[in-house]
UniProtKB/TrEMBL annotation:
Transmembrane segments: none annotated. Belongs to the aldehyde dehydrogenase family. It is an enzyme of class 1 (oxidoreductase). It comes from the Bacteria. The keyword Oxidoreductase applies. The active site is at E268. This is Aldehyde dehydrogenase (NAD+). The lineage of its organism: Bacteria, Bacillati, Actinomycetota, Actinomycetes, Pseudonocardiales.
Length: 504
């Protein structure tokens, strides 16, 4: 029988999506709606409003008024801390509901969202708890007079103002938190745009934030596709900062589009992250399972930081390939609410066509297909399913070793020594993450220092709410997570104050 998710739709209780402007939910000024089709079944799941330019104006005006009035940024620190902690608690209380909504949005299986920390509601809650701690600790410096004499030189950290936060579809819990928590902790106000492929989850997250006590206007939500809704935000003169997570192509466009008003921009973009598996890896089979898991399990490789290039020492190459295929075989596909299902479909037909195109490219450029490489049919024929795909003997310059595919495709590249491995690892336009598998501590740190990437996992990787995350090179601008993240939502102001009339 062909897969259907309709019974879950009724059980989760999906509502029609509306805009959230100035503390009120409503349809906005337009008549346009977006119909969300489920990636696993192709069924219509629900509709939400497409915000008009007037709606975006209203959202920005509301955020500006809220910012200028200081209802949030000038309220007692203990009030702001309490709201952020209360929200973290609400997220945890509503975790099951949110996971269900996400499964209806992007078809990430419950088996994954309930067990893998980085994509869990609990991680998002931890990010809010962490940032609540920064609310009353952000400060500047008082410096001794450089030129001598009697004066004070000081710095203050001021909230940057109105932030346009634009989200991708793949990890709504964490990515909502990574933007909204530091922006609020810094005292900013926000206009948020979720991805059109993952809207219902984010609307509920916004609703819970209001329930936690966030004042009206502090967070506004406009829904709809990148063009026109995102476009109206990134060019809006009332927006002070664009905080974007998504593809490199849109990131580049944001840099160009925001140039007219010199907005502050932070970008979390794509990657082609390598895993370097040395002959002295503590457990080659576990390394292979970790790499293949990241490229297939849960999001089916639609994860920015997945190690989609495995650079493997020739001495353990065959062992790695064998274990990699064993892990790939374990993936199961279907209804995301079924606890036995471990991996998702691709998000939409465009991505399905793109991934299948890369698989053909891999074959035509001479890589050896050792596993998968096909769209899944049968009961799954109406979904965008592609099974785990492993290419061996890939040239590091091949298209599938250089471009972000955003699908369950692993390129395995052999190497002979450490120098060659590091050179190939860095031979990419991206620099988001990397993995190093070695039992030799000196090698692990030596190689980690040489890799041009923002996050390195040594014999494993986990997201930490207080650890900066972001990219070198074309993987982004700035960092999310921890102190550097909250500082990115502030402007630094210097104040000079003579203490006598002599310096005036
Ligand atoms: P995308 O770039 O297609 O869309 C991201 C967001 O940008 C969506 O909300 C979309 O509507 C919006 N958008 C599209 N065109 C726009 C425009 N002209 N102006 C303003 N906004 C516009 O990306 P996606 O398919 O949603 O997500 C996948 C990409 O995100 C991958 O490249 C992945 O690597 C990256 N990603 C990066 C991180 C990270 O932390 N570095 C995390 C998750 C995903």
């Amino acid at each position: 029988m062909t897969l259907t998710v309709q019974p879950h739709r009724e059980a989760v209780g999906l509502k029609t999506g509306q805009l959230y402007l100035d503390g009120q939910w409503g349809p906005g000024t337009g008549s346009g709606t977006w119909t969300h089709r489920h990636p696993a079944s192709g069924e219509e799941i629900g509709e939400f409003a497409i915000a008009t330019a007037a709606d975006v104006d209203a959202a920005v005006a509301s955020a500006r008024d809220a910012f200028e009035s200081g209802t949030w940024s000038n309220s007692r620190a203990s009030t702001r801390v309490a709201v952020l902690h209360r929200y973290a608690d609400l997220l945890r209380e509503h975790a099951e509901e949110l996971r269900g909504l996400q499964a209806l949005d992007n078809s990430v299986p419950l088996s994954f969202s309930s067990t893998i920390y980085a994509t869990s509601v609990g991680a998002a809650a931890d990010v809010f708890d962490h940032h609540a701690g920064w609310v009353d600790k952000l400060g500047g410096e008082t410096l001794a007079p450089y030129q001598g004499g009697d004066h004070l030189a000081m710095t203050f950290r001021e909230p940057i103002g109105v932030v346009a936060a634009i989200l991708p579809w793949n990890a709504p819990f964490l990515l909502f938190a990574q933007k909204v928590a530091p922006a609020l902790a810094a005292g900013c106000t926000i206009v948020l745009k979720p991805s059109e492929y993952c809207t219902f989850t984010v609307l509920r997250m916004a609703e819970l934030l209001a329930e936690a006590g966030l004042p009206a206007g502090t967070l506004n939500v406009v829904t709809g596709p990148g063009d026109p809704v995102g476009e109206a935000l990134i060019t809006h003169p009332g927006v002070d900062k664009v905080s974007f997570t998504g593809s490199r192509a849109v990131g580049r466009h944001i840099v160009e589009a925001s140039a007219g008003t010199l907005k502050r921009v932070s970008l979390e973009l794509g990657g082609k992250s390598p895993a370097l598996v040395f002959a002295d890896a503590p457990n080659v089979a576990l390394a292979a399972a970790t790499v293949v898991g990241a490229v297939t399990m849960g999001l089916s490789g639609q994860a920015c930081v997945a190690n989609t290039r495995a650079l493997v020492h020739r001495d353990v190459y065959d062992e790695f390939l064998g274990a990699a295929q064993g892990m790939a075989q374990a993936m199961t596909y279907g209804d995301p609410f079924d606890p036995g299902v471990t991996a998702s479909p691709l998000i939409n037909e465009k991505q399905l066509t793109r991934v299948l195109g890369y698989i053909e490219k891999g074959k035509s450029e001479g890589a050896r297909l050792v596993f998968g490489g096909e769209r899944l049919g049968g009961d799954l024929e109406n979904g965008n399913f592609v099974g785990p795909t492993i290419f061996a003997d890939v040239d590091n310059n091949a298209t599938i070793a250089q471009e972000e595919i955003f699908g369950p495709v692993l390129a395995v590249v052999p190497f002979s020594d450490e120098e060659e491995a590091v050179r190939m690892a860095n031979d990419t336009e991206y620099g988001l993450g990397a993995g190093v598998f070695s039992a030799d501590v000196q090698r692990a740190f030596r190689v980690s220092r040489k890799l041009r990437a923002g996050t390195i996992g040594v014999n494993g990787f986990q997201v930490e709410p207080h650890l900066p995350f972001g990219g070198f090179k074309q993987s982004g601008l700035g960092r999310e997570g921890g102190k550097s993240s909250i500082e990115a939502y502030t402007e630094l102001k210097s104040v000079f104050l003579p203490l006598t009339d002599e310096m005036m």
